[in-house]
Automatic annotation (TrEMBL):
The chain crosses the membrane at residues 204-223, 235-254, 285-302, 314-341. Residues 362-390 are annotated as: Disordered. It comes from the Eukaryota. The keyword Signal applies. Keywords: Membrane, Signal, Transmembrane, Transmembrane helix. It comes from Austropuccinia psidii MF-1. Residues 377-390 have a biased composition (Polar residues). Residues 1-21 form the signal peptide. Residues 362-373 have a biased composition (Low complexity). This is Uncharacterized protein. The keyword Transmembrane helix applies.
Length: 435
């Protein structure tokens, strides 16, 4: 007896997934170019050796800093964001001092970006076939037309469809594997660590990539005679693999706040800390919705491997699980694209790194300097230093580590204090006049 939701588990999932793929692909290619790029000098990291190494590798993950740091500390070239979205075209490896070929980085970027339209093509072809064939009537309902009753020309498309799906899913999984190992590499980075291409994490990544592609394609080619069995095995393999990656990424989320605190102590620039904090929040959202995407598909896949297949014969259960998985897939892909294609709102608003904002008055006799901990300071004629103030009198360095609600409260408290001090001054004047 055939499952009611044969080939991709549901009749109308292909149209939904094709829409999701088009939206995500449009989002990925519409990333705005960077403008007003300014090089952050490595002196702002302090004198710790690990700071210079981290500064080079931060950009290597998802274009966190624009433009990249080069060996010459006077470099100020501004690259377009579309040329180095995930990785830059010429980042120096601080361990060997040479510029490596970044075909690997371009491959990692476009493997994820091209997987979306390929998913869309596969989904549209499958949806066209299934909507053309329609339902097979049975008592108390119906079921999608089994593939064995399809015309020969449509049956000949089954193997290319699933090969395309296996390649696309393997490419997406490969990106998540690289992302996991690179975050582990960053979290364990020390002054004595080797470069990314020489690290055990990169070697482990290469060790896992080839089996992922070979296994997925081998399942499709080796089990093409039994399409339903092949479908269940393919989905079960990818769901188990992605579930393991998602569970391992929980350790990265656990260590991430501690890592950020250590960077702040070592004197990382505030702009970098803010960006990393935002990426950490996106990773939390992505991980949560990855569970929402993987678990329902895993349930249906494991049920398809059983003899009775109780869940796949209940249409509303299939639709509920698939809709949940579709929502999880859409949000986690959107979060991944937001991480891979970050927008620097500071630069888009016209500000530059090291630029000072929020002054009521400017004193030409005061000279501005940037401390090693990324805090704007002023040096007056007497040689004393003081933090830059906003119009409300709050130090700018404090605002860089405060939430908007805390900033509003600080502004209100500052105004209240000024009002109280003014009232006290008036009372003193009145009392002095009476005396």
């Amino acid at each position: 007896m055939c499952r009611p939701a044969s080939i991709f588990f549901a009749l109308n999932l292909e149209l939904r997934s094709s829409t999701v793929s088009l939206v995500l692909f449009a989002f990925s290619v519409s990333s705005p170019p960077a403008s007003h790029c300014t090089v952050l000098q490595p002196e702002s990291f302090g004198k710790q050796p690990v700071g210079y190494t981290l500064y080079n590798y931060f950009f290597r993950l998802n274009n966190l800093i624009q433009p990249p740091l080069s060996v010459s500390r006077t470099s100020s070239s501004c690259h377009d964001a579309s040329r180095h979205v995930l990785y830059d075209d010429g980042i120096n490896d601080p361990q060997d001092g040479t510029i490596r070929s970044h075909s690997f980085h371009l491959f990692m970027r476009f493997s994820y970006q091209l997987a979306l339209p390929l998913f869309c093509i596969q989904a549209i072809i499958t949806a066209h076939i299934k909507y053309t064939q329609g339902f097979l009537s049975k008592p108390l309902g119906g079921l999608p037309m089994p593939y064995i009753f399809w015309p020969e020309k449509d049956q000949g498309l089954i193997l290319p469809i699933y090969l395309m799906q296996a390649i696309c899913w393997s490419a997406e999984t490969t990106v998540h594997v690289e992302e996991l190992f690179f975050w582990l590499f960053l979290l364990s980075l020390s002054p004595t660590s080797s470069g990314w291409f020489k690290s055990i994490y990169f070697k482990s990544f290469c060790f896992f990539v080839i089996p992922i592609f070979v296994t997925s394609i081998g399942i499709v080619v080796g089990m093409q005679e039994d399409v339903l069995r092949m479908e269940a095995v393919l989905y079960s393999f990818n769901c188990i693999l992605n579930l393991i990656l998602t569970v391992l990424f929980l350790w990265v989320l656990y260590r991430y706040p501690i890592w950020l605190k250590s960077l702040k102590v070592s004197g990382a620039p505030p702009d970098l800390i803010i960006r990393l904090y935002g990426i950490g929040e996106l990773n939390k959202v992505k991980t949560a919705f990855r569970f929402l995407f993987i678990v329902p598909l895993a349930v249906l896949s494991f049920d398809g491997l059983s003899k009775t297949q109780p869940l796949n014969h209940i249409m509303w259960v299939v639709d509920l699980l698939l809709l949940s998985a579709l929502i999880g897939e859409f949000v986690q892909c959107l979060a991944t694209m937001a991480i891979f294609f970050p927008r620097n709102y500071v630069k888009e608003c016209g500000f530059r790194a090291g630029q000072e904002v929020g002054r009521l008055q400017s004193n030409q006799s005061e000279s501005k300097s940037y401390s090693s901990k990324g805090i704007y300071q002023e040096t007056n004629q007497s040689g004393e230093t003081s933090s830059t103030l906003t119009p409300s009198g709050v130090p700018l360095a404090i605002l860089q580590y405060r939430s908007p609600i805390e900033i509003m409260q600080m502004n209100m408290n500052t105004k209240k204090k000024s009002q109280i001090s003014a009232t006290t001054t008036k009372r003193i004047e009145i009392e002095s006049m009476e005396c």
